[in-house]
Amino acid sequence: MLTAGIDIGVENVKAVILKDGAIVGRGKGRSGGVGRNAAAEAALAGALQEAGAASADLSGTVATGKGKYDLLFADKQVTEATAAARAAKHLYPDATCVMSLGADETLVLTFNAKDKIGQAVLNEKCAAGLGSFLRKMAMLLELTPDEMSALPPVAPGGATVNDGCVVFAELDALSLLNQSVSSREIASALTDAAAIRACTVLNDITIPMLDCVVLLGGLTRNHAFVQALQTRSGVDFTIPSEAEYAGALGAALVASDH
Amino acid sequence: MDYKALIANRRSYAMDWKARTGGKVLGYFDPYFPEELAYAAGMLPVRMMAEREPDTLSAKWIYSSCYPVKAFTNQFLLGRFDYMDALVHVEGCNWMYNAFEVAMNHDPALLTHFLFVPEHTDAPTSRDVLRSELNVFKGKLEEWTGKAVSVEALDYAIEVYNTNRKLLRKLYELRRFYHTPILGSEAMGVMLANQLMDKAEMNLLLADYIRELEAREPAGDRVRLMLLGSETWSTDLEEMVESLGANIVIDDLDNGASYCWNEIIPLEDRLMAIALRYLGRPHSALRDNNWRRRPQRIFELSEDFMIDGVLIAKQIYCHPHGLDNYAIWKLLRERGIPFHYFERDLSLPAEETKLRLKAFLHTIKPGLTRLMGWHQPLNLEV
Amino acid sequence: MANKGQLWETRPLEFWARAKELRAGWQQSIESKEQVVGQGNILAIADWSRAFPDVTLVEDNPAGSMIASQSSPFARKCRLASEIRGWGREICGYQNTCWGSQFLGYQVDGSPFPERRFVVPLPCLCDQHTKRGQQVRDYEPVPQWMMDQCVYLGPRDEAREEAMIEHRAFSMLRQINDIERLFGQQFDDEKFHDLLTAYSLVDQYSRDISVFMANTKPTPLSIKDYYSVYTLGSLTKIDPDDAVNFWKLVRDEVAWRAENQIAAVGNERFRWIEAHPPSWHFLKYYRYMEQYGAVCLGSQYAHRVTAGCLERKPDGTLDRRNMLYYPKDTPLVTREDGVRICLTPDVRYPHHHKMDEFIRHHALVEFADIFQADGALLAGWRCGVGCTLTRKEQAMRLRKAGYSVMFYEGSQPGDRTDLDEKRFLEQLDTWMETQGLEKYAE
Asked: What was the pLDDT predicted at C330?
């Protein structure tokens, strides 16, 4: 049985084709605006091509992500929390906690004794858009995503920026630029500030369950950020190779339930 | 006076004070906290300093948009106030109450007390209810320390605190000179250090410092500014202002001028004397409720200190000061006093703030007061 | 999706028609030109202003939130009018919007902003409330009377309370005397005493309603419906006899529904509570949650305004938490007696909805337990400090006690500027899905 899961995020759309619990196709494209449905179709077409299948072969398609209701051809929608939980448990049956880091939203879940979602915490508004913020800052500092990912940690006594508000963080970054601080040092400071904000969401869980914390979402590609998050939280995250596609994977798993 | 070192070493100072005296350290945030009473009970009242450091903890405990409150909470959770044995909250800012509650619940060993100070300060019954609250607090202090607060101890504490206020007022009087020998950053640094120390010890330092200032060569012409807005815990804004050729010569901050402006007038009933002092002090935004006295006071200070303009620096989401802007802006506009309003948090975006300050300084016409002949130093003998 | 899932019989509420009549009458009364209209916020067990022959108090809470509900563009205009004069953006929307309308000089329907002849700011733990009289007086020189909301933590202390009660009683007596003197109005003490008696009846009826809601599954009344009438006789000033009759009508209908298992929401399968006022301009989230079979039982705020806070008595029954009257059992003879009876409970008992959490840290857990809730939806109001105080800690306690909790954020209950409605509904979807619930089909 073939099912499809599509994760329509704020910045990217990802599609996964699942066959008997295994990913057989993936597709990805840019999201956003009125063209979300077309972007999702294109990503799905890519995934189907990789799987060597046609849309008629699909027994179900489930959408998740911020744009899930914009998708005209999905059979069902599930929230990002459900998709993340399904993907994490599928990949790591021992998972106790999931942290999902997207362009727009940071989400943390724990599992209860029945492997269902126990606690669920979403970022506060002022911690929204961390992924988008880092991307925007990279453009300002003229650094590529790979360069952002390879940044060193903040050096002791090095530049820092405001970690409470991205508007102030940006002003601080501009001030540092004006003081001839290197772009890389500023980028490290911004990465650390974003990690601090993300860490507040992780800490918001009332009863922490940190034995096996699975990290999902597009921000996992940024190694410097993940490193900063590990340092700030003291958590040793488990990061699957499918981290970026986890939302789509979770949606495809829900589709296979039906 | 090395006020920067005093501020930086506040924890070691408090620990040392405890070792020397065997007393307890009591933390407070609110400007209406009756320090004399705690001091008379043999405790060291210390004003809490909000300090920014990476904050990953406060959001779990408190939903607040006020950065100082988040910083307080974070510092509590990080154990930065571990030298405090007691914490007292005076009914006032609600966000501050929330930080108090977090501290209270997070650390059950902390001695805590909630002190009600009327927000309606002008009723004939306000003094009675505050006196009653002070009496309750005195009982609590006696319970904490295991000894009674004697009349003699109260008199001594009142004397020490009145002397402290006199000395701080002297500092402000030196700022009144057109060619003042003291910079705003120094004065605010001293004010902050003062609120961290045993006042008997601080008074000695202050007396020396004032003598030193009186002998100091006055600074040259600077644009004279007044600072209004939320309380401050650093001197970074003052320093930035000075780097641009201006000087903050007066403020109406809760932990600035308002802290020292009035003294306790001795009465047979010591608690009533203390109550009257706090009800009669220049009111903070949250207690200037029944009558709008702040604008009038701000205008008087602006004339007395011959200012060229006003800076209003409000902490983001500081609602007490957001509630007073209207009346203050109205006054400043009506009187043609140039002002610049901006919001900040515990950090100060360097370039952006500098730019706005430069723009503001270009718009005002400094030196008007000098041309009018008000710059002659007065002979101040205390 | 599952099918609609009707689990219980449900019927329209019959008291609705009477509620609409009373509401229309109130609107007429505040538009009257004959009266001395003051802006007032009375948080006492009775509206003493009705003992004056010709005084009307208009509250800025409902005025501000009604503007936000009726017209978003006008609300923005009001806010801007307020902000350019210096009122901070962090100021509670109830106030900023209402005052903005005063600065503009007209109301949402274009009619002139009613002249205020005096102002009585709300004595309240929320420190934005305590300052709120100032704008009215800043706008034009009208008399203002302050009063304190006295509160303390720790064990009961009668000496401490006595000083607080005297302070409050003095302030209120002065208000009454000054209004008599300034506006030539005679305060009718007998009527005042009658008002106190009438309002104690309203209290009884509303307490009964709260108890029926808490005890009965499915609940006979949801908070969505309750909010449509709960201000009648309190924030919305009406004739005391009308108030008594109306609340008796509501109580009797709710009692009948409870007895006959007539549900407010036919598919009730998840009961949830809140902690403070909802987003008044976006009440559709209650209806949205009903798609999941989730029904809201209200908040301490909702039930306090009418019924006082409930507690479980040693015999297992629910009743209002103990009240303190001062002087206890004193017959109602003088004006001072009435004033003390009016004000004393607010000093400490029953716990005001804010003070409840303020004083007792397990207050929300107890509330969830009393109302047999499965979870709590809590708001983070960025500009509503009094409505948000202690919320995060309460959430921790609720979670530890086994309740699921979801947060949403906005500016303030009477202000739509910062409520992302789409994100809010998505958060509700997330919450319900994490509870294993799916929407019923339309």
From this structure: 63
Q: Which residues contact B381 (CB under 8 A, 6 or more apart)?
A: none
Verify that A107 and A177 share a domain, yes or no: yes
Of B378 and B329, the one with more pLDDT? B329
Q: Tell me the CA distances in angstroms from B55 to B66, B76, B230, C111, C330, one per residue in order.
A: 13, 11, 21, 49, 54
- Our CA-based measurement puts residue B60 at a distance from the nearest CA of chain A, in whole angstroms, of 4
Phi-psi region of B61 (alpha: psi -120 to 50; beta: other; left: phi over 0): alpha
pLDDT bin (cut points 50, 70, 90) of residue B102 is: very high
pLDDT at A138 over 90: yes
Interface A-C: count of C-beta contacts within 8 A = 38
Say whether both B42 and B115 belong to one domain: yes
Touching partners of A (3+ C-beta pairs < 8 Å): B, C
Which of B149, B175, B191 marks a domain boundary?
B149
List chain C residues with pLDDT less than 50: 1-3, 326-327, 350
pLDDT the model gives residue C405: 96
Tokens matching residue C251: 């109580």
Q: Are residues A232 and A246 in the same domain?
A: no
**Is the Cβ–Cβ distance between C150 and C168 less than 8 Å?**
yes
Instruction: Give the whole-angstrom CA distance, residue B220 versus residue A115.
Output: 73
Structural domain boundaries, residue B133: 3-149
Closest residue of A to B352, CA-based?
Answer: A171
In this complex, do B114 and C152 lie within 8 Å of one another by their Cβ atoms?
Answer: yes
Predicted pLDDT of residue B178: 85
Q: Are A229 and A199 in contact (CB under 8 A)?
A: yes
Which residues, other chains included, contact B38 with Cβ-Cβ below 8 Å and sequence gap of 6+? B26, B44, B45, B88, B141
Least confident of B13-17, B193-197, C347-351: C347-351
Are residues B20 and B103 part of one domain?
yes
User: Is residue A23 domain-shared with residue A70, that is, in the same domain?
Assistant: yes
Chain C, window 200-259: residues with a beta carbon less than 8 angstroms from a chain B beta carbon: none
- Please, are residues C389 and B97 in contact by the beta-carbon 8 Å criterion? yes
**Identity at A112, one-letter amino acid code:** N
Domain that includes residue A250, residue range: 1-83+242-258
CATH of the domain at A61: 3.30.420.40
Size of interface A-B (CB pairs under 8 A): 56
Which residues, at least 6 apart from A252, have a Cβ–Cβ distance to it below 8 Å?
A: A3, A4, A5, A16, A17, A18, A23, A62
Q: Does C388 touch chain B (CB under 8 A)?
A: yes
Looking at the complex, report in whole angstroms how far the Cα of residue C83 sits from the nearest Cα belonging to chain B: 9
Q: For B37, left (φ over 0), alpha (ψ -120 to 50), or beta?
A: alpha
A207·C430 Cβ contact <8 A:
no
The complex's ipTM works out to 0.93
The answer to whether residue A17 sits within a structural domain is yes
Query: How far lies B214's CA from each of B107, B200, B224, C40, in Å?
Result: 46, 22, 19, 54
- Subunit contact A162:B54, Cβ cutoff 8 A: no
Q: Write down which residue in B149, B170, B193 finishes a domain.
A: B149
Into how many domains does chain A fold?
Answer: 2
Q: How far is B233 from chain A (nearest CA, A)?
A: 17
Closest by Cβ to B56, choosing from A124, A174, A196: A196
Examine the domain organization and report whether B186 and B322 are in the same domain.
yes
Q: Do C144 and B290 touch (CB under 8 A)?
A: yes
For chain A, the average pLDDT equals 94
Query: pTM, whole model, 2 decimals?
Result: 0.93
Distance from CA of B44 to the nearest CA of C (A): 23
pLDDT of the residue at C307: 56
CA–CA distances in Å: residue C371 to residues C213, C252, C263, C309, C322? 7, 20, 15, 12, 19
Give the mean model confidence (pLDDT) for residues A68-87. Answer: 94
Q: Do A79 and C406 touch (CB under 8 A)?
A: no
Partner-chain residue, chosen from A178, A192, A201, that has the shortest CB–CB distance to B351:
A178
Residue A88, domain member (yes or no): no
